């Protein structure tokens, strides 16, 4: 499969196109997260199994197809794209997709093009990403201890990731650190990680483990409720609630001692669905309407059956008309996982 890009037209700026995508609960869908690959150069224990079976490459949308589909979403009012995975920066020629998508930033149709990455390839790509208009990125990092990092990721090299973060900052991008809170693994380290991130002017967000995909470990052993983390943090820091909302599951506080912002993503202990503004596209072109639900739409079939973007737009509208009100995650001891898809398939 060639990842070479041929050029569909850009979309008209906001205000001149058709009506935005509104779901049955009157939520405007303005945010699309796109998993461009299910592959990764790491194997984080909470995310993947040691022996992941990856998809055959022919099943993936080509970069050209991804670009076309993004254009359709943007024409229907999507204002923010997040490229994720798997590890998005290990997909071959991924910068071609960023180069193509950046034209929507230039035209004003897109407000934000961003990325979630494990940081291993950032030293290589940060300057070009910044030059294409990627202003803010999320880097996932669960520990600052090199041995623990190798353990959690089953193979990662911490200095490489720290170098990537430095490269991104040097290129002028704002970096946010995402850390999954893992019981008996990094709980004790979180206060120091906050001091480190905030000391470098980076926001930090803590994430609860979600029951996505079968892995070797029992998730109840990994699960560390953020309510507990917050309580512990309050013995060292003064946390002031902030009104900031992103339409997502994060709640924010200001850490008064550092002056930095800290987010809590608690999908299991909090309900955040009422303000949900997002949908997720997998690397095979399945559109998932909710991270925690199985209902999806096969946009690859439509993409490959027609060159007519109006037909594709109708398939997108039909899917959005099925967006559920919310999810019902439960972390329970019984198998199988609450949602059989790994996060690396749906895109974190
Ligand atoms: N590889 C990139 C990375 O690690 O940032 C992007 C994809 S990764 C699936 C996106 C985010 O999902 C990461 O922050 C990761 O820690 C998080 N994640 C993966 N599996 C998870 C799970 N079961 N529960 C909670 N977060 C998870
Ligand atoms: Fe890879 Fe990201 Fe999953 Fe870790 S969390 S295995 S870096 S996709």
Written overview of the protein:
With 348 residues, the protein is α/β, with parallel strands linked by helices. The protein has a single domain, classed as Aldolase class I (TIM Barrel), CATH 3.20.20. The protein has 11 helices and 12 strands. It has helices spanning 63-75, 94-107, 122-131, 146-153, 158-170, 190-199, 219-222, 226-233, 299-305, 309-320, 343-346; strands spanning 31-35, 80-84, 112-117, 136-140, 174-180, 203-207, 239-242, 250-255, 260-265, 278-281, 286-288, 296-298. The chain has a 12-stranded mixed sheet with strand order 7-8-9-6-5-4-3-2-1-10-11-12. Strand 10 and strand 11 form a beta hairpin. Helix 1 crosses helix 10 (309-320). The longest helix is centred in the N-terminal third of the chain and has 14 residues, at 94-107. It is globular, with a radius of gyration of 19 Å. The two termini are 26 Å apart. Residues 1-15 and 331-336 have low confidence and may be disordered. Residues 24-249 form the Radical SAM core domain. It holds the Pfam family Radical_SAM. Its cofactor is [4Fe-4S] cluster. InterPro entries: Aldolase_TIM, Elp3/MiaA/NifB-like_rSAM, MoaA, MoaA-like, MoaA_NifB_PqqE_Fe-S-bd_CS, MoaA_twitch, MoCo_biosynth_MoaA/MoaC, rSAM. It comes from Methylobacterium persicinum.
